[in-house]
Amino acid sequence: MTNKLLILEDGSVFKGEGFGWMGDAEGEVVFNTGMTGYQEILSDPSYCAQMVVLTYPLIGNYGINRDDFESIHPYIKALIVREACDLPSNFRSEASIDDLLKEKKIPGLSGIDTRRLTKLIRSYGTMKGRICEETAEIARVVSDLKSSALATDQVSRVSTKSSYPSPGRGKRVVVVDYGMKHGILRELNRRQCDVIVVPYHTSAKEILRLHPDGVVLSNGPGDPKSVPESVKAVKELIGAVPIFGICLGHQLLALAGGADTFKLKFGHRGSNHPVKDIETGKVAITAQNHGYAVDEDSLLTTDFIVTHKALNDGTVEGIKHREHAVFSVQYHPEASPGPEDANELFDRFIQLMKEEEIQYA
């Protein structure tokens, strides 16, 4: 094993062992509290430009398989763990996590105190960090990190470059891909939807030209204010067609309706976040991955109302339009990984499309 350093912009230094690809990496350091699902986390496009710390102490014990990827090309900058398993044991396992990181040229760092690192992020918020050789000049790296800016082009990196179909015999759904997890596509396909996936910058006019029965605004990475063209398109779609927003799609919907968003101190990332449905009082355990949230006070002057709230910190987890068939949630109803408590939201979307029955000339 090769010794490597993780250096944070506040000057904190963690020494560990490199695994996977042995190159350096730099990005925003975030943590995920899930006990399982490392393959889905690695391949979730919402982690674009981020280095992910997994709080569960042993990662890789059931290996890597062909079925659990959420995208073809992982965009994660680096994976940071307490211990990486060298000898996975599972009937579906085809490779180790070390093999995958080498193949995808993603650096890994193991053997560090991930508990201390997570507590540091919780106390001071997410920070930029760099994984580098142990001979690196720490003061110089810290200076570079402090002067560097976070990426703002993540959505353009992870979105599909051209439209493509996933045919079905049911309702036609256009999915706007801001960094879509394959789990969203799987859930729509399970319901026989005739799906067309389009790039993030597709205009409202182009979307409506496809004659959809409904539109799904997918998850994705980064600050929703970094894609103003998407906000404009969503604004023009409100009232024209049923809309279901997920994660980044939820934030873009709120911005399109005139609300505001803000950056959370350390975000919500994991598969154990309780969310309350305000109308029913029901609590669901949800999968989440986001660093921004909708400002509740800013919704007061819009046509949206709050439908769901996070029980951990009271932030907005769901909204719906007062008049139109438009709703969204901050969490992931498709899970992958995580509980499927909120999976019925896809059925709700199908029902909305049936009730609306959009007529095109």
TrEMBL record:
A GO molecular-function descriptor: ATP binding
Keywords: Amino-acid biosynthesis, Arginine biosynthesis, ATP-binding, Glutamine amidotransferase, Ligase, Nucleotide-binding, Pyrimidine biosynthesis
Pfam families: CPSase_sm_chain, GATase
Gene3D superfamilies on file: 3.40.50.880, Carbamoyl-phosphate synthase small subunit, N-terminal domain (3.50.30.20)
InterPro entries in the cross-refs: Anth_synth/Amidotransfase, CarbamoylP_synth_ssu, CarbamoylP_synth_ssu_N, CarbP_synth_ssu_N_sf, Class_I_gatase-like, CPSase_GATase1, GATASE
GO annotation (BP), single: L-arginine biosynthetic process
SUPFAM superfamilies, sorted: Carbamoyl phosphate synthetase, small subunit N-terminal domain, Class I glutamine amidotransferase-like
Domain Carbamoyl-phosphate synthase small subunit N-terminal: 2-132
SMART domains for this protein: CPSase_sm_chain (SM01097)
Entry's EC annotation: 6.3.5.5
Catalytic activity: hydrogencarbonate + L-glutamine + 2 ATP + H2O = carbamoyl phosphate + L-glutamate + 2 ADP + phosphate + 2 H(+); L-glutamine + H2O = L-glutamate + NH4(+)
Binding site for L-glutamine: S46, G220, G222, L248, Q251, N289, G291, Y292
Positions of region (CPSase): 1-171
Pathway recorded for this protein: Amino-acid biosynthesis; L-arginine biosynthesis; carbamoyl phosphate from bicarbonate: step 1/1; Pyrimidine metabolism; UMP biosynthesis via de novo pathway; (S)-dihydroorotate from bicarbonate: step 1/3
Sequence similarity: Belongs to the CarA family.
Function: Small subunit of the glutamine-dependent carbamoyl phosphate synthetase (CPSase). CPSase catalyzes the formation of carbamoyl phosphate from the ammonia moiety of glutamine, carbonate, and phosphate donated by ATP, constituting the first step of 2 biosynthetic pathways, one leading to arginine and/or urea and the other to pyrimidine nucleotides. The small subunit (glutamine amidotransferase) binds and cleaves glutamine to supply the large subunit with the substrate ammonia.
HAMAP family, alphabetized: CPSase_S_chain
PANTHER family: CARBAMOYL-PHOSPHATE SYNTHASE SMALL CHAIN, MULTIFUNCTIONAL TRYPTOPHAN BIOSYNTHESIS PROTEIN-RELATED
Official protein name in the record: Carbamoyl phosphate synthase small chain
Species for this entry: Jeotgalibacillus malaysiensis
